UniProtKB/TrEMBL annotation:
Superkingdom, taxonomy of origin: Bacteria
Any one of the GO CC terms: outer membrane-bounded periplasmic space
Gene3D superfamilies listed in its UniProt record: Nitrogenase molybdenum iron protein domain (3.40.50.1980)
Main location: other
Organism: Tolumonas auensis (strain DSM 9187 / NBRC 110442 / TA 4)
PROSITE patterns: FE_B12_PBP
GO biological process, one term: iron coordination entity transport
Signal peptide: 1-28
Protein name (record): Periplasmic binding protein
Subcellular localization, as worded in the UniProt entry: Cell envelope
Pfam families: Peripla_BP_2
Amino acid sequence: MFRKNKFKAFIAAWSFAWLLTAASTVFAAPVTVKHHMGEMTLAETPKRVVVLGHASLDLLDKLGIEPVGVVKTLLPDYLKKYQDEKYQAAGSNLEPDFEAIYMLKPDLIIAESRVMPVYDKLAAIAPTYMFYIENGQYWQDTQQNWLNLGKIFNKNEVTKPLIAELDKQIATVHAKAEKSGQFALTVMNNGSNLASFGADSRFSHIYHEFGLKPSVARNIKAKAGKHGNLISFEYIADAQPDVLFVLDREQAIGRSTGRAQTLFSNPLVASTPAFKNKRLIFINSAAWYLTAGGVTATRIMLDDVNQALN
């Protein structure tokens, strides 16, 4: 009788363990999420995932999700492990390799804004989630993407504490920035061309979430461009920013290293309070330009802004 009860207990325990395992791959009910390109419903937790961007890859890395295909070009140092041959190359940040993706037989593709023009082609291969952040809504959209993917992968026990942690850090930085009353100018150089980005740009979180005030020139006008407002070093000198953030696009896309430091070493920049008070900050180009919306990237951004406030 004892052995029979023991055997029944073993079977019950095994069955419970099997159910837990099954629950990790099959939802109790289909999961539906809304994203920038519409709505998607998945019946099962995806197992074969292709990731076409570094921000979403940064998040999946923190969730412990192993993709089958990734973009291997321009990976930041903290995602270099995805160069390993066990991860199939799925194209570049701008051009997916459709044949390679098709051959991987994904049950989910995670795309980012740079491949939005070919979204329909990707969605014809497999359900495709668009990881997208609207200008002016960095933290709001980032949180929603994290929660959506946490729901898809049954990992919101990881994403919610991450959001709470970063919420607290953002609030701390915002309070420090407001107290400082500092005006910041955010500039991206592409070779010798300069562009500024204000409160409603792709770098809006410097002003909205992180709490600095936008610095603008009074006597020189910027010219609207495709990527930011085109400016000159005379514009920077006229704006007299308390903080000057510089993003070196050439470094971000692997064309040069350190050119921005040389370019910004001139009398016009030296005339600003930012330079005089050692608040000329060369921000992490990979985090701000390539992986914005990722967990590690957001932490790096906070560190960059903190440099100006400490």
